[in-house]
Amino acid sequence: MSADIVSTTPGVPADESPLTARHQTGPMFAATHPLALAPVAAPPHSVDGFVREFLRELNTGQGVALARSTVNDQYLALARTVRHYLMARWLETAKHQRASKAKTVGYLSAEYLLGRQLGNALLATDLNDIVDNAMTSCGLDLPTLRAQEVEPGLGNGGLGRLAACFIDSLATMSVPCIGYGIRYEYGIFKQTFVDGRQVEQPDTWLALGSPWEFPHPEAAVQVDFGGYTETYDDAGVTRSRWVPSWNVLGVPYNYMVPGYQNGRVNTLRLWSAQATKAFDLAIFNSGDYSEAVRAQTFAENITKVLYPEDSTPQGKELRLQQQYFFVACSIRDFIEQILEDGFDLHNLPERIIFQLNDTHPVIAVPELMRILVDEKKFEWAEAWQITNQCFAYTCHTLLPEALEVWPDELLGRLLPRHLEIIYRINDEFLAEVRQHYGNDELRVRAMSIVADFPERHVRMAHLATVAATKVNGVAELHSQLLRDKLLPAFSEYWPDKFTNVTNGVTPRRFVRLANPSLSALITDTLGPGWVTDLDRLSELEQYAEDEDFRKAFREVKLANKTRLYDLLRARDDINLENHHLLDVMVKRLHEYKRQTLKVLHIVSLYEQIISGAVDPETVTPRTVIFGAKAAPGYRIAKEIIYLINSVAEVVNADPVVAGRINLAFPANYNVTLAEKLIPAAELSEQISLAGMEASGTGNMKFALNGALTIGTDDGANVEIRKLVGDAHFFGFGMTEPEVTELQTAGYRATEYYESVPLLKRAIDLIASGAFSGGNRGTFEPIVSSLLYEDRFMALADFQSYLDAQAKVEAAYADVEGWTKSSILNVARSGFFSSDRSMRDYLSRIWRAGAV
Ligand code: 26Q
What we know:
Blueprint: H1 5-8, H2 47-61, H3 71-100, E1 104-108, E2 112-113, H4 118-125, H5 128-137, H6 142-147, E3 153-154, H7 158-172, E4 177-182, E5 190-194, E6 197-201, E7 213-215, E8 221-225, E9 228-234, E10 237-243, E11 246-258, E12 265-275, H8 277-286, H9 289-300, H10 317-338, H11 348-351, E13 352-357, H12 364-375, H13 380-390, E14 391-394, E15 405-407, H14 408-414, H15 416-437, H16 441-447, E16 450-451, E17 457-459, H17 460-467, E18 471-473, H18 476-486, H19 488-493, E19 498-500, H20 507-513, H21 516-526, H22 547-572, E20 581-586, H23 595-610, E21 622-627, H24 635-653, E22 661-664, H25 671-680, E23 683-686, H26 698-704, E24 708-711, H27 717-724, E25 730-731, H28 736-745, H29 749-755, H30 757-767, H31 780-788, H32 798-813, H33 815-827, H34 834-846
Parallel strand pairs: 1-4, 1-13, 4-12, 13-14, 14-18, 18-19, 20-21, 20-23, 21-22, 23-24, 24-25
Antiparallel strand pairs: 2-3, 5-6, 7-11, 8-11, 9-10, 11-12, 15-17, 16-17
Helix pairs in contact: 2-3, 2-5, 3-4, 7-34, 8-9, 12-13, 12-15, 14-15, 15-16, 22-25, 22-33, 23-24, 23-30, 29-30
């Protein structure tokens, strides 16, 4: 890890703002101002010094006296004070990276699920204790101020959170990276429950002020849309050009991405859409004020809201506008702002690798081609050779319906020149394929970027695969299935293009910040250093046999459960009991993830108790917590939420099971809640149908925090199980080949229903109206879906799941044995640090490194 570059290089030019130095307007007085040469001193690292700065922020920034300030004033002033401590490092990092001319990772992602910033900034600067004392001396409470922060929920789930973990790791590893994305005005909706049903509310994360962002309107970029293409004669060469019909401005907002105590701060640059001057002119000229304002609104709509979909892409025009908007801004930004003036774009691959986070940014491929060929007048072949080296593609799914396609008609209307370029890429690619395989037209059709059925459309995953230097899946199994099932013809044609990088999670946020008690125990035991070298967790292995350590470890878990239950009591009026086994299933609501299987387990336990088949005294006391948002348009997912809440209401109120089974479903699961839930969990539910969950990353967070996993052989579960060992993992269910076999043979859910008595009784209980006030119709859609049209075969794994849960109960009864397993889960999960993922990307894909 590099030294703190701020302490070794104190001077920072006062005229340089990260990434925008050459875009500043107005006179460049600072370079000649006498104070410009004075070093920007790092703020004083003392409690008194911090208090002074905080009060100045509060008084002059927020404009209030401490005595009259609200918690929000205090939070905003604190955030701005803390960010000052990162400022010098940020400027210095930008300068250092610019001077190094090192290869930069341009992470292109439509989503970043960042979580709260203040805690992470305090950790990165190692200011927590100073700030804690400073706030106390002001009569304030740091945790209260931290709780005031609204997390930027600019992502749906795993893919967005992964992007946030990756940029954290790159900053911590001193690798130059710019995260590029969209500054949605409204992030993922806020979930509430009304009578047990999900109701969505807008996420107004900007309403109370956003102290972590730095807008740069002076660096705005124009983005064109619509119109037509034409050819023209350019000194004897026929060239194409795009004549667009409308445009918008992209205004960048910079966010700090601090490395962990290494003096580095990388940049996340999110784009916000604004109307261009043309819109103002329209207001002026038209005299139709409301019509002109409508046009303004139209422009700003592009970044208004995050699409709350996960795994069910919808071909919405606005979504395509979002995608093109942010990649066009980002590529132009890199070429014109980051690269030095006069840079020879033939050498572009030496300076940038754009990582495509799924297909959402893939329109960047024809955009770079358009810039090189139309604007910079490169030969096509030359431009293609460059473009081919500048992109790499990560696929995050296996569900065929999740593969993004865009109707040719829509692309032609919105981005006519890009469509032409895509056609030419496809023509040349298919010509190669034909030459290689001798006009094998079936194969050609399978590989084509453009497909004709049911209407002509562009397959973005094919475009990404053709254009990318490398294509990777996100866990071993997923990468294998990606090669064998999703893109087999491509992997046959380009075997070396395909690789795997198993996902990871940042130990800063998900261990050090989220689990301070466990972190303290680890540091007491191993010394410092493990936070950036997570393989060192393996040194904990020997302590699994140490009785004192086990006791301390149990106390940590208990403290985290208490902390969670205090939170849930205050946040949701949920009352839970500490001595229960805490069993947690948190993730997006989707049929493939099989929340219904978990519900069937609970209903079955309940049914066995109320029917008298089982003495409640013999049931392991268990609290089950769900957290899940359903896409607003995903009907059956929303019904499943209603079912969970309905079962909870009945089970929790039934005196027969009182103290034995408890079910809680706190609303609005997000990163902030995850940080409290995961450290408290004892059992992690990872029960997707094998072959469906590309990786999962929640699974890793749980294991790192000492939860044992009950899981199928899916995604990264396979690797967790292999690393922690079968004895410390509750595996169950069909394997992926068994799933395929059953699909081929024909899955008939009713056979399981008829032949597994506990299953029949559980389903019948739901169908009887026991959880719907006697109304038999209420959950009929779920029951009939499970029995007649369940692509995810929940019933086929039910018996095996119940058997595994019985093993969980037996294991939990052995307190010392469970603790050993829990410790070994932590000790053996260091592999799942996103630092390791980044090392893999750097060596297998990016061919870049630290500077
Ligand atoms: C696409 C088009 C239109 C609207 C929305 C979307 C859209 C948005 C988000 C499609 C997919 C997503 C998110 C996908 C996602 O989160 N996938 C998860 O990625 C994780 C990180 O690799 C994996 O661990 C999970 O297994 C995978 O489900």
